[in-house]
Amino acid sequence: MTHTIWTDLSGTDFQVTTVDAGGVPTRSLQAGNGEAVIFLHGTSGHLEAFTRNIGDHARHYACHAIDMLGHGYTAKPDFPYEIPRYRDHLLAYMDAVGIESAHIVGESLGGWVGARTAIDAPERIASLQLLCAGGTVANPTVMERIRTSTRRAVATDDIELTRARMRLLMADDEDATEELIAIRHAIYHQPDFVANIDNLLCLQNMEVRLRNILRPEQLAQITAPTLIVWGRDNPFGEVPEATAMHEAIAGSELVLFDECGHWPQHEQAVQYNEVSLAFLAKHSG
């Protein structure tokens, strides 16, 4: 089957709109009814990371996939985007759309933000999914890979560099579709995105990262039901990172996907949707 964002969302009533989240215009894809599920993407990403998941989830839940602070087509204020800033933006978004408590699905950076929010505002988080989540280690090689590949793709109009950045995420290059590459390329070359690239990449600076990192004793404070999903071929974090999170968060579940890189919800969408919906069913209502 040939996937496009349109075929992924066909048959689902949805809207893409802009929400004023504490003064930050925030792009949001919304679909479905019921308890709220908020999908949070990774570093330099955007809400299209979840288009293979919205349809199945929107049959049961009110889905919100957002462009996080400084990302996608959300506003890009001129300050470093450290984790408390993302947390505050997420909570402001929830306030703006009237969500008291949400199930959070966070991929990579989104998982880091979701976990921080679950620690700091536990009453706002009904459950937590950490998909190849970042924020628990400071690996200089991985940080340099993220910083260099992103900056290179943003600094020049050559779409091959955006293609390389997207393929870096996936175990199978085919999952980095030409449509996703075109979307990412357009986002990367917005003037305000280019101007704010240092703010967006600040967490790849060792000093900044270390003051934002989630240590085991902090992860142990998470009380929300937690599902950890990891790709065995994740280029940005090895399986022991996932195992360490699982051990630190009491009662958490850990699922490992074969033939999967850094986007399990996209690369293994059918399998992920089944796992996610079973997890949500246990922890909603």
TrEMBL record:
Alphabetized SUPFAM superfamilies for the sequence: alpha/beta-Hydrolases
Origin: domain of life: Bacteria
Gene3D superfamilies: alpha/beta hydrolase (3.40.50.1820)
Entry keyword set: Hydrolase
One Pfam family recorded for the sequence: Abhydrolase_1
Ranges where the AB hydrolase-1 domain occurs: 36-267
Record-linked InterPro entries: AB_hydrolase_1, AB_hydrolase_fold
GO MF, one annotated term: hydrolase activity
Xref: PANTHER family: ALPHA/BETA-HYDROLASES SUPERFAMILY PROTEIN, LIPASE-RELATED
Protein name: 2-hydroxy-6-ketonona-2,4-dienedioic acid hydrolase
Organism of this sequence: Sinosporangium siamense
